[in-house]
Design brief:
Elements (H helix, E strand, L loop, with lengths): L1 H17 L9 E6 L6 E6 L5 E3 L7 E6 L5 E6 L6 E6 L6 E2 L7 E6 L5 E6 L6 E6 L5 E3 L6 E7 L5 E8 L2 E8 L5 E7 L2 E6 L5 E8 L2 E8 L4 E4 L7 E6 L5 E6 L6 E6 L6 E2 L7 E6 L2
Antiparallel strand pairs: 1-2, 1-24, 2-3, 4-5, 5-6, 6-7, 8-9, 9-10, 10-11, 12-13, 13-14, 14-15, 16-17, 17-18, 18-19, 20-21, 21-22, 22-23
Length: 287
């Protein structure tokens, strides 16, 4: 009897010890990659280094964004013939199609309360911003400007969008007041891409052309000054702040192909976190 009880306890202890530990909060990334032959959405743990294919479909899935509660991912997929918006749970279940029209949608981001999405669409012949109710799936046009707009990013307080506006060869980083439509230009460059807000709403990370090379830069919204964060003669893109605001994930091809890197906001402790002969894109943190 004692032996049986001891044996059962040993099996229970062994089972608990072998269970995978849950990844610490703020230590997971969602990104797009073509490592399995086509572009898919993946979940990656920075500590356990486990990789999960979330979308698992033989077509192009890209541009992921994680909901504020960390439960769902919105992304762009061409699985029905054109680029539409879809969501799924972080375990890959409950695939839901949000848009269905002949236009091309891209660059979706969540509102801070998780009830709305803003995205780019060419429904009216050029790239403008649209709002979509996640529950109602009803969209409305947010901007109607001569400039072509891209890369929206919703501020943590929910009042503003950072975006890139392009006219001709010049691109401008702007802030858009959602309620009034008022715009505030911040900086301009022949190359401007993918702004991202810091969690405290005081800083924007983005890509700009610096001395002939694209670099990750930080814009201090209080001082109006730019800080260059990366210093490599290589292509970079898609910065994203960690939930604690201390690190930035980004993509670079400095080692021959597009991989994901982390860097502290003081420019220190830069490291590569993916190593695959394929291409990675659009890393975003799970809250």
């Amino acid at each position: 009897m004692k032996f049986s009880a001891l044996f059962a306890f040993s099996l229970l202890f062994l089972g608990l010890a072998c269970q995978p530990k849950e990844e610490a909060k703020g230590e997971r990334l969602v990104f797009a990659s073509n490592r399995d032959g086509n572009w898919e959405i993946y979940l990656y743990g920075l500590q356990d280094r486990r990789l999960h294919n979330l979308s698992a479909y033989p077509d192009i899935d890209k541009s992921p964004a994680v909901s504020p509660d960390g439960r769902r991912v919105v992304f762009v997929s061409s699985r029905e013939g054109q680029d539409d918006l879809y969501t799924l749970e972080l375990d890959g279940s409950d695939l839901t199609r949000l848009t269905q029209n002949l236009a091309w949608e891209r660059d979706p981001v969540w509102s801070p309360d998780g009830r709305q999405l803003v995205f780019v669409s060419d429904q009216e012949g050029q790239d403008d911003l649209y709002l979509l109710g996640v529950g109602s799936r009803i969209s409305q046009r947010l901007t109607q400007d001569p400039a072509w707009e891209s890369d929206p990013a919703w501020s943590p307080d929910g009042k503003r969008l950072a975006l890139v506006a392009r006219q001709g060869q010049q691109q401008e980083l702007q802030l858009l007041q959602i309620e009034t439509g008022q715009r505030q230009p911040l900086t301009a460059s022949p190359v401007l891409r993918t702004p991202a807000w810091s969690p405290n709403g005081q800083t924007l990370a983005y890509v700009a052309l610096v001395k002939g090379h694209s670099e990750i830069c930080l814009w201090d919204l209080k001082t109006g000054k730019q800080k260059v964060l990366t210093h490599h003669q290589a292509w970079v893109s898609d910065p994203s702040f960690s939930p604690d605001g201390k690190r930035v994930a980004f993509v670079s091809n400095r080692d021959g192909n597009a991989e994901i890197y982390l860097i502290q906001t003081d420019g220190q402790s830069e490291k590569r976190i993916t190593e695959n002969p394929a291409q990675e894109a659009s890393p975003v943190w799970v809250p």
